[in-house]
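Q: Can I see a sequence and its folded structure?
A: Here is a first one.
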Amino acid sequence: MRQDSLLTIKNLRTCFHTYEGVLTAVDGIGLEIYRGETLGVVGESGCGKSVTALSILRLLASPPAEIQGEILFDGKNLLNMSLDEIRKIRGNSISMIFQEPMTSLNPVLTIGEQISEAIKLHQGVTHQEAWAEAVEMLQMVQIPSPEIRAKEYPHKLSGGMRQRAMIAMALSCHPRLLLADEPTTALDVTIQAQIVDLMERLKEEIKTSVLLITHNLGLIAEMAKRVVVMYTGKVVEEALVEDLFAEPLHPYTQGLLGSIPWMGRKMKAGRKQLQEIPGMVPSLLEMPEGCRFHPRCPRMMDICRKEEPPLVQKDGRRVLCWLWK
């Protein structure tokens, strides 16, 4: 583990035991988050992005979930901690912004009560001090009239305000690591831009590292320094953001970038302006042999059908593909 690493994941494997069989949602991934940086994780729905974040905080019920490997936070393996020890870390040293704020917030508690609860639990302050801190956090995330909003229930807030309240709750204890799972989903473009600006500003003020999970490559380009591309529970490529956008190595990454509308992209004779990746992400119960992407890959070779590709190190990047062996 590097000296400036905050979180190091080694050979993480998360399985779900079901009546139909064992579903491996995360299959032996490794990644590293450095202090003060934003690491982006991208991929289609069902590629294991959210399960990775939930595995870090051990928020998956066991059974049916089973988590193996190492998740080293400041050198300590979170998977070896007791429930009491991990509860002291959740919401304190490591916080999470969930995908759907309306379903993540408690509908029978006011916004202020939900934020102050975490502050009281981890900071050991009085109810009045925690409430004052909650109001201050709402003001920090630019919610107007924070004293009034703190006394309101989640259903009274707009989608953008609920997302800001979630961010306020996640940052209330000044965590060292923030897991942001699709923080701008279901928000209109204007509110998305405001949320991005807010997270960038708070990241600089609080000096928090961020694991940004999204399918929005535009968001990755704006916020992240490095990016990890996942497919069927595996890391298929990792690189600096500018290198990935300039020269994607894995055919899956090339397909993702090809499906994005770019200003200035010209129509080519006989083909559509936007490309698409054929087929669907395979079922976790019916994974193809060899390279898992080969049924959809335009550059498939015979070996891709038979053998799983190695993780190749190339110019400081990682790519899981036979093309670069």
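Q: Show me another, different protein.
A: A second, unrelated one:
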Amino acid sequence: MRVLVVEDEPALRQQLQEHLREQGYVVDLAVDGVEGEYYGSEYDYDTAVIDVGLPKLDGIELIRRLRGRARNYPILILTARGDWQDKVTGLEAGADDYLTKPFHMPELLARLNALVRRAAGHASPLIGAPPLELDTARKEARLHEQPVVLTAFEYRVLEYLMLNAGRVVSKTELTEHLYEQDYDRDSNVLEVFIGRLRRKLDPDGTMQPIVTVRGQGYRFGLSTQRAG
């Protein structure tokens, strides 16, 4: 998952980057509202964290501009303690949730994970596609109720495909959402990962959990259950 973080405080910005990367997010950083507007308009994100008190362009106006450009990914705003007006104004501008500073990092991570899965139509952290189940909170997969040992990257590929079940995901989209910008994006390497993931999820080749759509990309091949 790719996340945009717009935060002018260096220490907090670094903290957010480190913790989000540990959770498997690809992180783009912006230090002010103008830079945030550029990133948020030019690139496609799964979610964004935007501080309200930004230099050059405040967070509320940034959100308004992004929504005005039909950038509809979920946005979490960060506000100073007690500034309830910012919370209300931010939500009215198009933010999906807010968090008051200072905050605990696990809460921010939980809120972001919830925003991403709800944007995909899943209220529960468990995404079922029998006999496969994905636990987005624990970052685990189970097949026939047994754990599947996945690398961090294999999990991210599976999570992205399952959250986007029902549509074809191109190789370009996968690499943009799963790799850092300076990573060597070799499509052949991605094919190797997909092949290895298929063998783990479908050892006898009967389920076809990941389908290759020739010339277009990949599609999750099982029906997901959108639990409430």
